[in-house]
Description:
Chain A has 314 residues and is an all-alpha fold. Chain A is 74% helix and 0% strand. Chain B has a single domain, classed as MetI-like (MetI-like fold).
Amino acid sequence: MGAYIIRRLLSVIPITLGVLFITFFLFRVVGGNPAYRIAGKNASPARIAQISKERGYDKPLFLNWRNPLDAQFPRLCLQLVRLDFGESMTTKQRVSTMLREGMLPSLCLTTPLFIIELVLAIALALVAAFYRGTWIDRSLVILSVMGMSISSLVYIMVAQFWLASEWRLFPVWGFEGPQYLLLPILIGVVAGVGGSVRFYRTVMLDEMNQEYVRTARAKGVANRTVLFRHVLRNAMIPILTNVIVAIPFLYTGALLLENFFGIPGLGRLTVNAVFNGDEDVIFATTFIGSVLFVIANLATDIAYTWADPRIRLK
Amino acid sequence: MSDGPNNTGLWQIAWRQLRHNRFAMVCLAILGLYTAVWIYAEATFWGARIRGVTPAYKVSNYDIRNQPPSAAHPLGTNFAGRDNLSQMIQGTRIAFEIGLLTSVIVIPIGFALGAVAGYFGRKIDTAVVYLYSVIDSVPGILLIMAIAYVVRSVVERSEAFQAITRYVDSGLLAVCVGMGFTGWVGLCRLIRAEYFKHRERQYVLAARALGVSDGAIMFRHIAPNVLHLIIINFSLRFPGLVLTEAVLSYLGVGVRDEPSWGAIINDAKQRLWLGNWWELAGATAAMFFLVLALNIFGDALRDALDPKLRTAEAKTA
Lengths: 314, 317
């Protein structure tokens, strides 16, 4: 198992290199010399040359024959490995400071949102599976699909307009206390729960068609015990996959909710960075995101062995 | 060909099952209606384009701005005095164009990579799995945004691409390229797993023993057996594309000069404060029924064509 974990952790390297390559390619090869974006529209060629020199944009992109490490892409990778994320070209702040400041608001929003949605979705899925084939099950499924079919933008706009600004039940905008998070969390849960209920219900119904459930029923185990003891335990594998892999995305924040409600989190930070072509911020967030993603995938596999003792990692 | 019992193929069996699913049939009817609206919208759009006039839905009339619903304008008018109903109709066209254009990118990439990875295995498989793991580890919407942003700036800067924008909106193209280059992963996974199974089947071994080339086995012998996966994947991906386009519109990388539903919803946001809610309601409803019908019909289609897929998908999701 130790060897397995080490091997998997090493796969962080090629994956992260690939992710960085894609972002680098998009922003520096296709997007052109970033010095033009920093200097603005009417900059003189001398100014562009100066910025390029300062920031190393005049070096070869991928390969420098004389000194292999003295090219833009290798330099970027080395810089990120040292956890030096550079400085934002729009705000002139250190990117690491910006990330640190944005992380708390993002996590305050996404963590409760994630947990409430997960618990609610599994509970509703259990209800649907318990009453499968009846009107309860059918209406839950229909409601879920209907909920999935409305754009999340509409949920946000309608709730923000009517609940917050017309009826004044919640604050409309800002991040000054826990009450500012209530409405975003509520919207996030309502918008996301439908898809999750449908997913978990499928998983549970699949388990309920297994032989061991029939055996348990045949020997007289109560319906409820079958569901909670047997089915839920066996449905853990797909549930875990879904849950753990979602965790890295908690940190990237909720793009829409943060933007609409003025929560100064990482989602908003990243969106702004994409529009301003603020590369250093984008490189840093995609770098951290991909590392976390690979680790979460590994954590899923380790969690499998806990959920299902039959699984051994080699 | 006779109508013998052996002639009931996968598709007939599936159709028979679907026909008895009343829900799915209602959804199919709704989809038919949307398709008709789409064709009508294409006709008006291209009709105006060929005659070289501004299409009716783009003509502004500032005397009748922001009007509530009336007999002449069942959904009222928007900020430029354009009829909201015809905006929704053109939105249908945009939604379908997004679905099709994205699939033109997704299906060849997903199918080809999945097929070679599953069929050849080994190093090719490792390479393909590496490629989609990389794409998977970037938050989807960010990658789409970044691609769309870059594509749009390239299209608008270079003269070679300017020609394309006469036929396709540059924002629409950017969105489709973004969703296309990130969206093939799911299809690729499905196809790869299927080719793994099929390459050991007897008919494949027989073909190989007869000296049929790998290419012919992959694309002529196995491909028809996985065709249904492409169709299921398409019908289940389509609703997601429509919803994602709306989000992209809000983030400012969506369709630009055409009334996509996402663009309408974003415009309608400001008008809510004026008490004008029918614009938002119209676009939401137009989107809702298409996405709902696609979701339900896609599910029914999957259950009819490949019942095992439901849980397979759930477990790898």
